[in-house]
Amino acid sequence: MPYTIDVSATSSAPPAVVFDHLARAEAWTVWGPFPGFVRSVRARDGAPDPNGVGAVRRIGPAREEVVAFEPPTRYSYTMLAGFPIRNYRSDVTLEPHEGGTAIRWQSRFEAKIPGTGPLARLVLTVLVGGLARGVARHSGRCEAGCPAHSA
Hints:
This protein has one domain (2-141): Alpha-D-Glucose-1,6-Bisphosphate, Chain A, domain 4. The relative contact order is 0.26. The chain is α+β, with helices and mostly antiparallel strands. It has helices spanning 15-23, 28-31, 117-141, and strands at 2-11, 38-42, 56-59, 62-70, 74-81, 85-97, 100-111. 25% of the residues lie in helices and 40% in strands. The chain has 3 helices and 7 strands; from the N terminus they run βααββββββα.
């Protein structure tokens, strides 16, 4: 049975600034909920952007792969390992909104262990909501051109 998560946040920063903070894996350690959240990033050979499609990131216990990289409107990734779930995918869309950005973070997954889906959904909803609010707050504090990895 598939489970879904759909959270939203709003940033005062324009979509390009939010996307820059979202797409740079090393920035997640600044605005994400846990210090040291990103442990490594491996880019696909020949990729035009090291955080673009094909990049594999170790974020906390998870290993994820970037599957959509469309600045400044869409960023998507799948989870390869790290949680007792399968077929996890998150799609983050960014749209201009009242001089800033509306962020919508949608995820879907299936439980690997029968009966654990509702708990996994609760935990992931809290985590994904924190990520959406974190990138919104952090990017909103930055002026245009602010390095994504600085506070």
